């Protein structure tokens, strides 16, 4: 969740593990709208704590970013996120939202379209950020099953 004291504790513990930070927005206003904890820890403070962790551990930090339609998936937000990564050796892991009902703040979110997701990813990369789109395992299994059935090698 990007809890600064937790990142600082992990830094001091020197456990040799990778750090993944759930950022989900390039700015405090959007992050606070999505995550209840967002107002306690500004984006810049989170990234600075991650910088210190990375400096001490030598491990690349992963920035988790779940795309929500119309909330945090604009191309301007992609440029802002890429800008935050300038001079940082961090990887952005884009996630497609899996609808689960009401959020902690009582909102219902939708996943970004695949077209918007790919545009967001392309914009990050054009701006020099290292970014990947993590496909869901369920989605991967469904695609693999469809390929197997098409080839006649499926199990069912």
Give an overview of the whole structure.
With 156 residues, the protein is an alpha/beta fold. It contains 6 helices and 4 strands, in the order H-E-H-H-E-H-E-H-E-H. The longest helix has 15 residues, at 43-57. The N and C termini lie far apart (40 Å).
Helix content: 40-55%
Query: Which structural class do you get from the secondary structure elements?
Result: alpha/beta
Radius of gyration, whole Å: 17 Å
Total count of helical runs of at least 4 residues: 6
Order of helices and strands: HEHHEHEHEH
Quaternary status of these chains?
Answer: single chain
Major sheet description: 4 strands, parallel
What is the total tally of β strands? 4
How big a fraction of the residues is strand?
5-15%
Distance between the termini: 40 Å
Order of strands in the sheet with most strands: 1-2-3-4
Report the mean per-residue pLDDT as an integer. 86
Q: Which regions have little confidence, pLDDT < 50, spanning 5+ residues?
A: 138-156
Shape: globular
């Amino acid at each position: 969740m990007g809890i600064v004291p937790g990142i600082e504790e992990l830094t001091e513990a020197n456990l040799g593990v990778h750090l993944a930070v759930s950022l989900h927005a390039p700015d405090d206003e959007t992050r606070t709208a999505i995550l209840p904890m967002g107002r306690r820890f500004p984006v810049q403070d989170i990234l600075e704590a991650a910088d210190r962790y990375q400096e001490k551990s030598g491990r690349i930090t992963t920035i988790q970013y779940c795309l929500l339609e119309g909330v945090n998936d604009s191309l301007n937000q992609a440029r802002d996120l890429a800008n935050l990564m300038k001079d940082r050796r961090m990887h952005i892991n884009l996630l497609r939202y899996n609808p689960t009902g009401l959020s902690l703040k009582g909102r219902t979110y939708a996943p970004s379209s695949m077209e918007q997701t790919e545009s967001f990813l392309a914009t990050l990369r054009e701006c020099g950020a290292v970014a990947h789109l993590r496909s869901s395992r369920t989605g991967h299994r469904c695609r693999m099953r469809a390929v197997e059935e098409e080839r006649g090698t499926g199990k069912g």
